[in-house]
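re: the backbone from monday

yeah here it is again, tokenized this time
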């Protein structure tokens, strides 16, 4: 099982390039960052975490720019979005950004995505909360066309374009792996249909192993080989027993969450967490 870290990369935390270097030096396989373009001050949508929304949510760096800085100062560290809110982004522009990051990093990009929970945030981008999952599906399918075809075209309800040219193409065959966040049965069905991996949250620990079995069943029914689907625990508990259970179950990757804090806090924490890498 691979071991990574994740952090809200912000303007007040340890610089993401320094974090990347330090994580790679300690043996971590990957670094993931979340995304929010902004947070509307109305705060109409309740925070999914159940408490007051932490300020890191409106201080996040752009994930593609930040991850490129991380990739530029490392050699083997995989860099990933966890998660990219593609429903708030232009599909063709995002396909270009993802392909460019994968190209410049030498095929080290992991594309974690989700449909989001903040209705007013996505409304500012012209996305309807009720139809966000339908839009997300079309965006993924359209991006995969752009990544893999010389003259891709796509015509859906939310994404449509005639044949176009778009380079660079990603280094990774088929494009960067698309990892879908969420824990519901609907999420698992979407993973099987059009994604490359499942991206459950570690705080939903009671769902992960049963969800893995459900994912296997859904994949078998759809004729999908589980070898083509990774399972990536976002924010795994730094507990040896829990991690051992994940290893035995065949979980692909576990990521420990770091607080959005300066280097004096983060570096000792990286030292401590690195002892759990096996």
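seq for it, each position gets an aa:
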């Amino acid at each position: 099982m691979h071991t990574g870290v994740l952090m809200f990369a912000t303007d007040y935390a340890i610089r993401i390039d320094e974090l990347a270097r330090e994580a790679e030096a300690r043996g971590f396989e990957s670094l993931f960052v979340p995304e929010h373009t902004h947070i509307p001050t109305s705060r109409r949508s309740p925070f999914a975490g159940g408490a007051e929304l932490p300020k890191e949510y409106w201080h996040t760096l752009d994930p593609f720019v930040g991850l490129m800085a991380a990739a530029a100062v490392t050699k083997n560290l995989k860099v990933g979005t966890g998660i990219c809110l593609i429903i708030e982004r232009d599909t063709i522009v995002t396909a270009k950004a993802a392909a460019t990051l994968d190209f410049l990093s030498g095929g080290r990009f992991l594309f974690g995505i989700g449909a989001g929970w903040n209705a007013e945030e996505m409304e500012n981008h012209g996305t309807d909360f009720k139809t966000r999952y339908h839009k997300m599906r079309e965006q993924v399918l359209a991006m995969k066309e752009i990544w893999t075809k010389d003259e891709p075209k796509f015509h859906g309800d939310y994404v449509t374009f005639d044949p176009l040219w778009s380079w660079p193409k990603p280094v990774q065959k088929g494009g960067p792996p698309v990892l879908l966040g969420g824990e519901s049965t609907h999420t698992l069905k979407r993973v099987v249909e059009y994604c490359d991996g499942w991206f459950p949250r570690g705080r939903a620990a009671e769902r992960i192993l049963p969800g893995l079995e459900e994912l296997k069943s859904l994949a078998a029914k759809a004729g999908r080989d589980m070898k083509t689907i990774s399972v990536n625990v976002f924010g795994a508990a730094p507990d040896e027993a829990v991690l051992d259970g994940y290893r035995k179950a065949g979980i692909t990757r576990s990521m420990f969450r770091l607080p959005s804090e300066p280097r004096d806090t983060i570096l000792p924490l990286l030292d401590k967490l690195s002892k759990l890498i096996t």
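The mean pLDDT is 97. The radius of gyration is 18 Å.
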